[in-house]
Amino acid sequence: MDFMAELAELAMASRLRRLSETYWQAVTAIYRQSGLDFDVRWATIFILIARQGPVAVTEIADRLGITHPAVIQVINELEKRHLIASTKSDQDGRKRLLALSEAGLAMLPRLQPLWDAFVTVNRQMLMQQTHNLLISVQEMEDQLAEQSFFDRVRAELDARSHP
Q1: Residue 43: pLDDT over 90
Q2: What is the CA angle 115-116-117, rounded to 5?
Q3: Among 2, 114, 123, 149, which residue's beta carbon has the most beta carbons within 10 A?
């Protein structure tokens, strides 16, 4: 048996990471095989910019629930590849608004069929599951939004030290 599976709850984060890495490797291979110089790390930000149009860095971070520095790192890579362009906001000159560049717009129709295939395959796999992984992940994220894992573990440790 898989040792991480044996560890069950103790290895939950490691198993999620392993699952994520399995996906990322496959998606990266599909991009490469399709002749696209596109990194899997860029996808959610690229899709958000493509769907929403000009959007600020802070809004991207808020919408995706990731840190501002993480967004900046991806934005810098997308700008370096000339897939997005930034303009200053008319309302706030300090704010950068990001949109797909001509190269980004040209790449979008090449990416979309791959993303459609990813969705189809994921749906097929989810339909074969007893418990829908996406629903379970959402439930875990909701619980962690109410109280962080750190705070939950601290409370458990405190309860054990003061029976």
Answers
A1: yes
A2: 90
A3: 114
Reading the block at residue 58, the tokens are: 């802070």
**Phi and psi for 88 in degrees, rounded to 5?**
-80, 145
Count of domains for the chain? 2
Q: Is residue 139 part of a domain?
A: no
pLDDT level of residue 92 (50, 70, 90 thresholds) = low
Burial class (CB in 10 A: 0-12, 13-18, 19+), 74: buried
CA distance 163 to 159: 6
DSSP 128: T
Strand partners, 3: none
Distance of alpha carbon 91 from alpha carbon 27, whole angstroms: 38
In a domain, 154, yes or no: no
**pLDDT (0 to 100) of residue 73:** 96
Q: Which two tokens stand for residue 45?
A: 């930000």
Among residues 71, 104, 137, which one ends one of the domains?
104
28 lies in some domain: yes
